[in-house]
Design brief:
Elements (H helix, E strand, L loop, with lengths): L1 E3 L10 E5 L3 H12 L3 E5 L5 H7 L2 E3 L2 H5 L5 E4 L6 H6 L11 E4 L5 H10 L5 E7 L14 E8 L3 H12 L5 H10 L4 H9 L2 H15 L4 E4 L2 H24 L10 H15 L2 H9 L4 H32 L1
Parallel strand pairs: 2-3, 2-5, 3-4, 5-6, 6-7, 8-9
Antiparallel strand pairs: 1-9, 7-8
Organism: Melia azedarach (Chinaberry tree)
Protein name: Arogenate dehydrogenase
């Protein structure tokens, strides 16, 4: 695993086509728009009105979408529907080499499907933003973004796409808003700063820090991702779903630990069961972690039983 800290000083606007415009696709799109990228979208559900409101061109026709001269095609669909959706798309209609990116929560499975269905000239970047609309609502600073450059020839386009997450430059909006409160309209900032070199240096330092206030970029193989995710994300969802089956609720005498369990249950069930199923079915390491959890619970039960028997034996001798 490698932690990437480098960031290019600038990034050009990308033409990004999003396949699947559910809550997560919408969540990513809003930041991409603020960064100045040009977005198109297609989805089984008609999101044309929402896209019109956001300034995104919505395509009902998949072929027209693929012919729309995208720099990047971003796949944001459910794990369980991936194979069916990708195999139905006429990727041969794409007119030039394009970077294809997935944002699914498992990585070996989409990597294998993409390499199978995509033309050889298409670049492939497998990613997993380790956050969502709720955990990332206040920004992406220090939130993990995992990726593997599976097949990359166009390094410039790949770097520009990763820059979206590496440097969440939309935070500069608040910086300029602050300056505007002091009487500087945005068009007048540059000439004003040129007359004050000391302030200009300070502003550039602040801007540089803000540009770096993005995700914690983790470059790792799809295999390593799935191993780690099975021990963390899948295990978290499994325990949360188990607590839901137990129907636990907040009480009048909660401990902090129990409050954490209730929050875990609630956050787990907010995600669809299809997501949970995908984490299990399409991560080959999840099965072993489920067995490990069952064995661990059995060991705990055995220790409790032994403790009860020992206590009973002591009491019988009194």
């Amino acid at each position: 695993m490698a932690v990437s800290t480098s960031a290019s000083s600038s990034s050009r606007a990308l033409k990004i086509g999003i396949i699947g415009f559910g809550p997560f696709g919408q969540f990513l799109a809003k930041t991409m728009i603020k960064q100045g990228h040009i977005l198109r979208a297609t989805c089984r559900t008609d999101h044309s009105q929402l896209c019109h409101h956001l300034g995104i061109l919505f395509f009902r026709d998949k072929r027209a979408f693929l012919e729309a001269d995208n720099d990047v095609i971003l796949i944001s669909i459910s794990i369980l529907s991936l194979s069916e959706v990708l195999e139905s798309l006429p990727f041969h209609c794409i007119k030039r080499p394009t970077l294809v990116v997935d944002v699914l929560s498992v990585k070996e499975y989409p990597r294998d499907v993409l390499l199978q269905v995509l033309p050889e000239e298409m670049d492939v970047l497998c990613t997993h933003p380790m956050f969502g609309p709720e955990s990332g609502k206040d920004g992406w600073k220090n939130l993990a973004f995992v990726y593997e450059k599976v097949r990359i020839r166009d390094e410039a386009t790949c770097s520009n796409f990763l820059h979206i997450f590496r440097s969440e430059v939309r935070k500069l909006v608040f910086f300029f808003f602050f300056l505007s409160l002091s009487g500087n309209s945005i068009p007048s900032i540059k000439p004003h700063l040129q007359t004050n070199s000391r302030r200009n240096i300070k502003v550039e330092r602040i801007k540089a820090r803000l540009r770096k206030a993005g995700c914690k970029m983790l470059e790792m193989s799809c295999e390593e991702h799935d191993k780690v995710a099975a021990k963390s994300q899948f295990l978290t969802h499994t325990i949360g779903r188990t607590l839901s089956e137990m129907d636990i609720h907040s009480t009048s005498m909660n401990t902090k630990g129990f409050e954490t369990l209730v929050q875990l249950k609630e956050s787990s069930v907010r995600d669809s069961f299809d997501l949970f199923g995908g984490l299990f079915i399409h991560n080959r390491f999840a099965k072993q972690e489920l067995q490990n959890l069952e064995l661990a619970l059995q060991k705990v039960k055995q220790k409790l039983q032994l403790s009860m028997e020992e206590q009973s034996s002591k009491e019988s001798k009194l």
